[in-house]
Design a protein that fits this description.
By secondary structure, this protein is an alpha/beta fold. It is built from eight helices and nine strands. The structure holds S-adenosyl-L-homocysteine (SAH). The site of S-adenosyl-L-homocysteine has 18 residues, from strand 5, strand 8, strand 9 and helix 8.
Length: 243
Amino acid sequence: MNILTQAVAIVKKILIYIAMQSEAQPIIDELNFEETSILNPALPMKTYTGVSSKHSYFLVTGGKSSMYGVDNVGTEPAAVGLQAALQFFDADLVINAGTAGGWQSKGAQIADVYLGKSPVRYHDHRIPIPTFEAYGKGSYPCIETAELAQLLNLKRGYISTSNSLDFNTDCSRLMEENKADCKEMEAAALAWICHLYAKPFLPIKAITDFVDHEHPTAEQFQENLAKTCLALKDAFVKILNNL
Ligand code: SAH
């Protein structure tokens, strides 16, 4: 019995949240997931279903913004999309697969895949009132991944979430406090929903860009997105096979 089966008993129904279509598409293609429309039509999220010999899957992406024509990245679509999906699919495990910024100074390389470590936190919810400060940062759990990471030769790291692709000096300070290895825009919001619904949460992040690099994040991100999404898909399939 591996660590995940110990942690969450028998994982049969797996709900997957992926913010961007380009992150999700290699996984959808590889696993032959089929598009379905189950959620409230008011919501922009796209949904897919699939089965394997061991599991049934329900995948949700953020969908596109009808106002701005881009993928619905960030915490609000993540929280709303996961919450809506859980109404229809009472998952045994929630996985978030996505891309993130990493730190060269901490040994990250482009297309490295990290499994999240508890706690998942925010670095842009600053509420400097003593009773609210910890709530702002959040500290939401994810499942223990040490054995899985060792088995599949994946890295593990702390994930820090905000709604900005770039960062200011406050973000830097808080990311340092969070010991961030992965900087991204959804995981803490998803971890919060999982905490509310008492669902085990497994975040998986692949590195598209370096936070500590002189090139603008957006340029690095565009340049590395395709190959990083393929690395994410490969790791993701291996992870599913070991749950
Ligand atoms: N420039 C991109 C914008 C995508 S937003 C585009 O044109 O498509 C970034 C998405 O990738 C978010 O879903 C976030 O979770 C992830 N991400 C990757 N690198 C990131 C970083 N350095 N900071 C924040 N989010 C990052």
